[in-house]
Amino acid sequence: MSYEPSYATMRLRDELDQTAVVFHPLEEQYRNLEEQHEAGTLGMWVFLATEVMFFGALFLGLGAYHIHYGPAFEKASEKLNWVIGGLNTIVLLVSSLFMVLAVHYAKAGHRKHLMTFLGLTALLGGMFLVLKGFEYYTDYRDNLIPGWRFDDQEWVKEGLTPEQVPQVKLFLIFYWVMTGLHGVHVTVGIIAVLVLLVLARRGTFTPVYYSPVDVTALYWHFVDTVWIFLLPMLYLLGTHTLADLHIL
Amino acid sequence: MSIAIQPRENYLNTTTGVLSWLLTKDHKRIALLYLITVTVMFFLGGVAITIVRLNLMTPDSGLVSADTYNKLFTMHGVIMVFFFLVPVVPTVLGNFCLPLMIGAKDLAFPRLNLASWYLFVLGAVWALYAMLAGGLDTGWTFYTPYTTSSSHSNVIPALIGIVIVGFSSILTGLNFIVTVHRLRAPGLTWWRLPIFVWTIYATSFIFLLATPTVAMALILEIVERLWGIGIFDPALGGDPLLFQHLFWFYSHPAVYIMILPGMGIVSEVIPCFSRKNLYGYTFVALSSFGIASLSFLVWAHHMFVAGISLYAAMIFSLLSYLVAVPSAIKVFNWTATLYKGSISFEAPMLYALGFVCLFTAGGLTGLFLACLGMDMHVHDTYFVIAHFHFIMVGGMVMAYMSGLHYWWPKITGRMYSEWWSKLSALIIFIGFFLTFLPQFIVGYAGMPRRYNHYPPEFQVWNVMSSAGASILGVGYVLPLCYLILSLWYGKPAGPNPWGATGLEWQTPSPPPTENFATTPVVVRGPYEYHVEKAQNEL
User: Under an 8 A CB cutoff, do A54 and B109 touch?
Assistant: First the structure.
């Protein structure tokens, strides 16, 4: 992984190198800030590899059961609130754009823009969670919570056989575990971005020392990417109509 | 009489007080914290199996009830696998030696390293709580549907503990990978890395890629148990095979997590005590990656009788045979290293030779089990138990003891008793054979694992096994005594008591907190004993 040169000129960089060291002393095991930055970036990539395997187990389970129980899974998916799911996709994608801009302005040493875009990223992350909360409420209202609010008869009336009802539950539990786990990741991301915002306000980040912004951005994009896989695998099975949503 | 403490400042005496240890970021101190924790876990797991072996002295299970018996072997398995064998070498010797061996001041993320230890302790507390307050009777494999719907024991706290300890492993692996990539001393190219570093590096990849899967599988079991949704329970529409796939996708690579660092230790010790360059360095280094890669492709050989398709079973059988190739490469290269070497038999070398012998025996019986027809016959018998104990105890624990004895002078600055250490190596070797060789025989004759009673004709073998276990127990308590006593009574070791060539021996023992006074510059390979020998002869 090669180190990308920052946008600052060499002289400015030398000056900033001094200030950066004052703010964030170089940890003693590293020779210089660049090495520290590279280690942080590599560490995050490696961490994301384990995250892929973590979510991977769930995607594998969901995929395998979808092959076995296609009709029941499609029926269950039709009940999910695809409108909010779709909106949330847009929200997350835009937040990723803002995160990229935040990294750009951190590299350029533009503190005000950095703070703006970090704030917007966190805001959209929060918006995602609020929308998700509304969606969970509609799921609650529509009896989509196996083990708590779930009515076997409703599904039989929909045309499923009694044997298929446990399969619907299986789909829904994957829905809850996967979106729940993703929600936890978004929450962690928002907290990290807010910490960055506080640090940015204090003027911690410079074109030489901005590695926390870079590393957090990697994480943020990963969480975004997971959602891009969640949307089709959970929400887009079967045929979806607005009538299923009970919102009109 | 104790020898006056050396006045030189080192990592042990630079700061004092309990907090200076509990909040330390020094990889060497964290290694010692791990050493204490895993040693406690080892002896707890040992106590559990002692009672099991006593119970098996008679065919009709005279000592404990069937319920207690189930809880005891589960406790042994869970503790030994998740809290001893998986973490022991990476976290203790890896943590201590890796930065020293690559000429670094510390790991890449020291705070993360300390956090990993706290996660380990937290996980251990959950699991111990589950096992001591009421017990856990599922076996260490947590198969469904028993674990999720039938068992009435403390399943959920135990699963939480194991998930937490999994994260500790992941973070340790992450730390090691970044350290090896970023913090090597000037001149330390990839092909000059000691094999121990190569194996820890390969192990870290397995930690990273395999552990999350089992964590997820266990979390899904928790969800299933809490809400009664059939994720894996066939009665509720789930598929128990899916759990087995996910579980063994971690747990088979996990056995290579356990053995690879041991192979690394032996690759350090054998060249040192034969005074020869490691034969076939490149092949030994790359075979670690061969093993790590193949480890991800063989998991279903645990499921030959579980109902996977015959075609899948054939493929997995074939792939399992392939693991023998890189393993054999290592054994042949160690043997070739010994050939015409100036061999001396200090304690680390005795343990290392014990490793090679027992690992080979365990590996060859592994081929029996990779064979589809043979595995159908001995599946879930004591033959399997004997096979993996040859690798895990005969291999891994031997290698760990070898490494501990090899680096003990570096860790503490003291030499232990030579006579006692050689004696204990011998006792462990003899005790081991007596414990596990009979299990091959009863296993082949058909004695299934995990039962608390058996036909009377198996008694003689079981008594032999239990007698061996008591010898083995003595062999494990002895090092605990003489290693601790060496802290007060041991002779000062000096920086390089073995005349070894590794970087870690070029700094004083015990090393200063910053490891090296000046960053070393590496100009040669890790095992150039022949160069040194030639220089001496001149």
Answer: no
pLDDT tens, residue by residue, B319-362 = 999 999 999 999 999 999 999 999 999 999 999 999 999 999 99
pLDDT in tens, B448-499: 999 999 999 999 999 999 999 999 999 999 999 999 999 999 999 999 999 9
Would residue B446 be called left, alpha or beta, if left means φ above 0 and alpha means ψ between -120 and 50 degrees?
left
> In this structure, how many other beta carbons lie within 10 angstroms of the beta carbon of residue B88?
28
* Architecture of the domain delimited by B26-537: Up-down Bundle (1.20)
Q: Which chain A residues have a beta carbon less than 8 Å from that of B238?
A: 170
pLDDT tens string A90-114: 999 999 999 999 999 999 999 999 9
Contact call for A57 and B246, based on CB within 8 A: yes
ipTM of the complex: 0.90
B238·A58 Cβ contact <8 A: no
Distance from A188 to chain B by nearest Cα, in Å? Answer: 16
Q: Dig out the tokens for A100 from the structure.
A: 């990229």
CA of B251, closest CA in chain A: separation in Å? 14
How sure is the predictor about B432, in pLDDT bands with cuts at 50, 70 and 90?
A: very high
Nearest CA in chain B to A41: B178
What domains lie within chain A, and their CATH numbers? 11-245 (1.20.120.80)
- Chain B residues lying within 8 Å of A163, measured CB to CB: 237
DSSP per residue over B458-509, as a string?
GHHHHHHHHHHHHHHHHHHHHHHHHHHHHHHHSPB--S-TT---SGGGGS-S
A51 contacts in B (CB within 8 Å)?
212
Q: Do A166 and B178 count as a contact with CB atoms less than 8 A apart?
A: no
